[in-house]
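Appendix B. One record, verbatim.
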Amino acid sequence: MVSAITILCGPPCSGKTTYAREHAVAGDVVLDYDELMAELSGMPLYYQPFSLRGEAERVFQERAAAMRQGWIIRSAPRKEQRGYLRELYHARSLVLIVPAAICIARLELTGRPADVKLRQREYVYEWHRQYTPSTSPEERMEVSLEVRR
């Protein structure tokens, strides 16, 4: 049986949220950590107050555990992380493989403030340093080389 939940992973600016919204079907929930942080903090998207991270993670996990179908968006560069998430949520995983240079080019096209861009640029490179591929049949990859918003 194919899982109704997909753990969608990839570096910042790989298009995870866009991909989930474009592929969602009726009844799908799209659970995005960045959007949750904005909801909890009342701050603009991509500002992530350190003081709220524990609370945000708790709420994120509660919402994910309650899901029956949809998309759980996490960066999860390491195969062990993705395997744990697949098992925890009885899900499959999809990794968006987007070269760092493409992610950075996409980041530069956003209207995000300079301090956010600087932090996210560092996250892009860190994701690529940590990435490990998986041979699990419950995981697939998609490669994107398109520079788009």
